[in-house]
């Protein structure tokens, strides 16, 4: 693909590089000796169509956006798209921001990345500062990995982790008035479902003792305790150090710390390895992976109404998705190791970022008030698309978000309705 060829056209700006070739025969002729030409030819599934008409316009495009690189090939209007990444110790890694998808989400590397992301979050202008606060009424104390216990906090101040997940099935060993006293002494490991056990593991490996989980920290057969604790949901998630989102688990017995090996959703069978000439003259290696195979379209938590409130209110989220581990705060939403998501971030990206600070109404600009109103509208739209096991919870499951918005509009009147 000689750059001075008259049938090729270049256009360039700091974020997009586009190259157009109108003679497909040139790619076919160079296929055996040029890896780039081979990639382009392999991208065209109906090669006979090329041979019949060799004047199809072929456009190759590199795009840098939101910290990642993507590569696209268009045959007329039909496109193929790849995400670009480099291995950490490769010379190309200095210039290519994307990294390989993290498959072992329970590795030492994964926890190091989590700590680094959370530490960086404290520097974000729009993120809530990490502060020590009062623990919820009850938490699971995971100090002893062999025998975690229910801890009555009595106003103790410390950091804690919260869990957002899909029940998906009955939890026979949830906390009730009958087992409350015994759980304070210790919760038998056989009584803890896999998803909650995995959350305890994450809590301990991050160096924390306390985990809040609704099924164990709310007395499930007490109407009074349920009403009292649900009224505190906004504070529980908003004040958590980080919230674990077991996004990939369809039910509480599934767990979420399993390896993310190649599947239909994140297969690497379409990976291409190509040379990359670095600006300093060294030759590195770039890897291209079919973009549409990088990210599932939705997760089980995306269908549940309660999970929306828990996620929106949390300042920092560890999202254990089907394809990898993601980090989300009020500033960023990324794969944990910086691996690019080629296609849109789907439902995760749709979730509005609500204002964290609560400015007095007289200090809020008209633009800020407008954005607040748009965020509320978008949240209600998303919420009404989600499912509830008990229809009577429809107002309760969004009450924490509604309370937060009422504080943003101090001169407005909050009415319990949609």
Task: Indicate the percent of residues in helices.
Answer: 25-40%
The rounded Rg comes to: 25 Å
Gap from first CA to last CA? 59 Å
Poorly predicted runs are 1-14, 264-269, 342-349
What is the succession of H and E elements?
Answer: EEHHHEEEHEEEEEHHEHHHEEEHEEEHHH
Side by side, the strands of the main sheet go 8-7-11-10-12-15-16-17
> Which of globular, elongated, flat, extended, rod-shaped describes the shape?
globular
What structural category arises from helix and sheet content? alpha+beta
Mind summarizing the main beta sheet?
Answer: 8 strands, mixed
Strand content: 15-25%
Number of separate strands: 17
Number of helices: 13
Mean pLDDT: 80
Protein name: Heterokaryon incompatibility protein-domain-containing protein
Pfam families: HET
Domain Heterokaryon incompatibility: 160-310
Describe this structure in words.
The chain has 418 residues and is α+β, with helices and mostly antiparallel strands. It folds into 3 domains: 8-100 and 263-293, no CATH class; 108-259 and 296-351, no CATH class; 352-418, no CATH class. It is built from 13 helices and 17 strands. The protein has helices spanning 25-29, 35-43, 47-52, 108-121, 180-185, 194-205, 214-217, 223-230, 233-238, 305-313, 346-350, 366-383, 399-408, and strands at 8-12, 16-21, 58-65, 68-75, 78-85, 133-134, 138-141, 149-152, 157-158, 161-164, 210-212, 242-245, 272-277, 283-290, 316-320, 325-329, 333-335. The strands form 3 sheets. Strands 8-7-11-10-12-15-16-17 form an 8-stranded mixed beta sheet. The longest helix is centred in the last third of the chain and has 18 residues, at 366-383.
